[in-house]
Amino acid sequence: MTEKLRVLFMVDHAFIPRSGSELHLVWLQSNLDPERFEKFFLVFSQRDCPPDMFPVPSLTLGQIFGNTKLTLFKRFRALVRFLCDHNIDVIHAFTPNDEVLACYAVLFARRKLGRMIPVVGHRRNIGYMVGFKRHLMGHLIRRFNIPYLANSHAAVEAAFALEGIPRERFTVIYNPFSRSRWEDGLASPVSRAELALGSGDFVIGSVATIRRIKGYETLVQAARLVVDRYPNVRFLCIGNVGDPEYHSELQSLTAKLGLERHFLWHGGMDNPYRVLPVFDLAVLSSYSESFSNSVLEYAAAGLPIVASNVGGMSEIMIDGENGFLVPPKQPELLAEKINMLIENPALRRTFAERAAETARRDFDESAIARQYAGFYENLCHPRPSGPQS
Predict the structure, then answer these.
(1) How confident is the model over 360-381, as pLDDT tens digits?
(2) What is the pTM of this model?
(3) Angstrom distance (rounded) from CA 240 to CA 226
(4) Residue 328: helix, strand or coil by DSSP?
(5) Which of 148, 154, 323, 382 is the most exposed place for a label (fewest CB within 10 A)?
(6) How many CB atoms lie within 10 A of CB 302?
(7) Which residues neighbour 187 within 8 Å (Cβ) at sequence distance 6 or greater?
């Protein structure tokens, strides 16, 4: 029997899994073949995450070594010790902070293990968080030439343009459509009555954390143009308040535009599939996305979609075939496409059917899990790149 590969998922901090990175970590740990992989999850931060948050028990260095106030040097030594004690084969570092820590830790672990542990970096946005600190961290690990994963080709291009990471060091593996998450959501649906929505309301939904990068003000401005033509439209916004000041500004804007009764700010939901059947139309007005889990979930749920044409959105949707893509920060164009779909039920059905087919065919979780497995195995046991002479 082939020995299992020991994969360490490493993240500098983790919170309740509602954002894309945490949800992806949950999915990845659940779907990597347990017959081929032994999985470890280490939170490097002093902050603990909930003990039942991940399928693999999450550990902090403080929990492991009995001191939650370790100095940075001691924490680094603790990481080296962890790598050696568990004979780790691959480190998957989910943030640039983790990449730096992992790259230097493997140098010290090599003395005991007699080998270098491969470190994998990950890019899951299109560069809006890149600044001086990111460039400094990139400089610190440049000599390691680590491979990277990205969840879209747009993320690869952003990393090349903004961080100078060569394209050839990237492998793109898309986020999956999680069938189990979809089934769990449909098993406990939220009704219109629970949301105080009338049977005659046309519901336009958006699932996104309330922060500026999600461009909710564009949706609110577009809403005024939609409601002028279709007074029975209600906008249902599902998302945690990530920026209270911004949330307050949005509420002021809806009041200023006379839209208070048309907007329902519901708050976060662990599984948006519970509420997606309530939507008649789904929208995402973000200014920046690498790969939108929300749009993939809209598509999988069989919804007609209007979304900002940013980042990797065109890798999920084809404008005019399975939804509409519009330029960001253009409320007039957003309203135009929404109105077009409201008045055309046949087009809504066509988009919805095609979107569902795309989501379930191109983002199948079994296929994507196999891509991850193959990536990790090839990293440890590289296959020949061509015929041997």
Answers:
(1) 999 999 999 999 999 999 998 8
(2) 0.88
(3) 25
(4) coil
(5) 382
(6) 18
(7) none
